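JOB MANIFEST
job_type = single_chain_structure
chain_count = 1
residues = 141
[input]
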Amino acid sequence: TGSVLVSVREHILSMQLKHLEACHQSHDIERAIELGKLVHEISGRARDIIDEGDEVLHHRFQLVYPIGRRGNPDGKELRWHIMESVLHSVKTHAKELHAEHPSAITITTKDRHQYPVIRFLASTGQESAYHWLCKRIVADV
């Protein structure tokens, strides 16, 4: 409840591979069942969000998994739209937060083509600036 697990894609794929390996090994049934439960839980709730997408998605960084069927990343081109939406929402709501509570965050931009650097400084009453911003981003996306 309310937890967030941050992981790199390779770790999730490695866990799925371990599950497939355990399924193929008859002496490891209990491990296969437990890994299967975990894989199912993560697959049902996990979302892929990537940074530096051009670099991360380059073929030289892809792992080879010889077991199981090949699959596309979650969301295909929708992944790019989601990241653009999240970044736009952060930028927009950070400006709103700064206008309402200038002592809560700083926003620094060197030029108009650069994404701003946002630093959280203080809370805004009962709700921290970070949580205020997170709620608005989630509502947008």
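[summary]
The chain has a mean pLDDT of 79.
The two ends are 20 Å apart (CA to CA).
exit_status = 0
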